[in-house]
Amino acid sequence: MERMPAWADALLVPLISLAVAFAISSGVILAIGENPWEALKIMVTGALGSSYGWGYTLYYATNFIFTGLAVAVAFHASLFNIGGEGQATLGGLGVALACLFVPWPHWSLALIGAAAMGAAFGAAWAAVPAWLQARRGSHIVITTIMFNFIAASLLNYVLVNVLRPTGSMDPATARFPGATSLPGIGDMLTAVGIPFAKTTPANVTLFIALGACFLVWALIWRTRLGYEIRAFGKSEKAAVYAGISPVRITMLAMLISGALAGLMAINNVMGEAERLVLNSVEGAGFIGIAVALMGRSHPFGVLLAALLFGFLYQGGAELALWTSIPRELITVIQALVILFTGALDNMVRQPVEALFLRARKGAK
Amino acid sequence: MMDLPTLLQILDSTIRLGTPLLLACLAGLFSERAGIFDIGLEGKMLAAAFLSAAVAFVTGSVWLGLVAGIVASLLMSAIHGLASITFRGNQLISGVAINFLASGLTVLLGQYWFALGGRTPSLEGAARFAPITLPFAEELRGVPVLGPVYRELISGHTALVYVALLAVPASWWLLYRTRFGLRLRAVGENPAAVDTAGVSVVGIRYAAVAICGLLTGLAGAYLACSLSAGFVKEMTAGRGYIALAALIFAKWRPWQALGATMLFGLLEAVANRYQSLNLWGLPLPVQFMQALPYILTVIILAGFVGKAIPPRAGGQPYVKER
């Protein structure tokens, strides 16, 4: 069967889908009586016009890189992990325990310890749905959704009844000790002579996120396990015939996925809040779905999509500040991106493919 | 030991809280029995709740609100149908998109129309469903046990509660006693066979998705115009997912759906009433009660308590052979 060129498949189709999603978003802005062009200008100025804006954009992007990679790794194994939200919640608990109960001498050691705990807790939370899928055939989409709710209740219980300092009314842990405080991007850049706002939450975790992108790329395309994950995702029957164990791949892919989602907590819990609060994930786990779909499950695509969503998040906050457009506009854009790059993919793909095939016939 | 009035109050709120779950659960039942997974129940309910409250407030008529709510949820269903039936996209991803779309649009439009931070103004009088007193509720008041049970528990609910309860036998009849129902179930198990028999798979699936939209519309309107007095941001609060859980719990069957949703309604009613429970000396925190429907569903899904087998063709787009 004839197909369109790879570049059209990897770039053109997602870009057209994205353009459609943004065109409809502009329509929505027009419909609520605002000017989409003005809105875009405010978003660009607010998110990219100053080092302060960039700091927030990069902070949000760091969250979305982790959750986007988490969804992407599972996608490669044909598993839809909707549980990033719960896994990141549990990752937060792991990070908080590491920061509160271990007397770290230096932030770098604390970062390693907290990252290990966050990843372990995230992976553990993904392990149960993974095992149920692999061994009992329970649909992983439903079980991971259920585990999101169970995670929220569990964290609520732990914060209210266990980790809340005595005398505090706020369902949150105590502030983490000073030694666990991560250096911000602002401090680091200023130290090497580049002026950058110091009051933004962007921190050293950004570099760990970039490293995670590279490691996931290497894992998926340069290791035996990555090959097995992709083979399993393409065709379970063929993979079994080639001697690949479905149970092992399902477990490993979901453990890696959960660990990546859990790692997000070093950014938002340790880097930004420096204590664990209720709903610290703030939907980043779900945005990972949009990021992975847009990035076509490729780490580089995930990075670009995470930056775009980081921009949308920070820009949306500025928009809510300066206009009467509420932040929920970003939720609508996110929904449209998921709809057009994910569910309605064929709507864009089929005409583009037909166009290419016709052009090729004409050239012959 | 609990006294009768307390018990009646808890059971009464069980029915009130179980009703939206029941309607949404039956909605999911039609869709999934036809082979279309729907994790967008939450979003459809939310859209219906918003538009029904908005229209009920502006027109002052809850019935116009109800119609508007159904329209909102049918529009969401149309998107789901387009994505998962016509363009053979991923049904789960489409459902996720619908949930976000509803969550964002309701606040965006709510803020634009009413400027109350995404709420609608409170509904009063004819803009809300009124309770219906069944015949003889007052006359039977003096009869011990039966009188209060009839008066408090069975009588005095709003119209949609009775509609939801009647929808259970109606769904059963439609699914198991009509030709349409047989075809609908067949489309969810083996669409190729239905196609061979000369029946349109696409048509049946769209019909199922539309019935799903109608029922989630009722559920949403009930939430905003009966259970509450107006729309509040994110007011469905995970009920769409609990309905999904109840659907699995009920193993995709209507009567069992009634049992499962009322059980989950009871859990919610008890969690609302008691901040902590002591069960045989074991303290149960309120968070545990809130998580219980989800935990039960995972246990059911794990197959430890009977096996939940979904419709065989669920989630797969149908590609006609050429």
Automatic annotation (TrEMBL), chain A:
- Keyword match Translocase: no
Q: Quote the subcellular location field of this record.
A: Cell membrane
Q: Which UniProt keywords apply?
A: Cell membrane, Membrane, Transmembrane, Transmembrane helix
Tell me where the transmembrane regions lie: 12-33, 53-75, 87-104, 110-128, 140-160, 202-220, 240-264, 276-295, 302-323, 329-348
The protein's topology relative to the membrane is: Multi-pass membrane protein
**CDD domains (UniProt xref):** TM_PBP1_transp_TpRbsC_like (cd06580)
- According to the record, the signal peptide region is none
Magnesium as a keyword? no
InterPro entries associated with the record: ABC_transp_permease
For this protein, the record's Pfam families field holds: BPD_transp_2
Q: Where does it mainly reside? A: membrane
Please report the name of this protein according to its UniProt entry: Nucleoside ABC transporter membrane protein
Q: What is the lineage of its organism?
A: Bacteria, Pseudomonadati, Pseudomonadota, Alphaproteobacteria, Rhodobacterales
Automatic annotation (TrEMBL), chain B:
Membrane disposition? Multi-pass membrane protein
Q: Does the keyword Membrane apply?
A: yes
Q: What is this protein called?
A: Nucleoside ABC transporter membrane protein
Location of this chain's protein in the cell:
Cell membrane
In terms of one coarse class, where is the protein primarily found? membrane
Any single Pfam family the record assigns to this protein: BPD_transp_2
Q: Which InterPro entries match?
A: ABC_transp_permease
Has the keyword tRNA processing been applied to this entry? no
UniProt keywords (A-Z) are: Cell membrane, Membrane, Transmembrane, Transmembrane helix
Q: Which organism is it from?
A: Cereibacter johrii
Which positions, given as ranges, span the membrane? 47-80, 92-114, 154-175, 206-232, 291-309
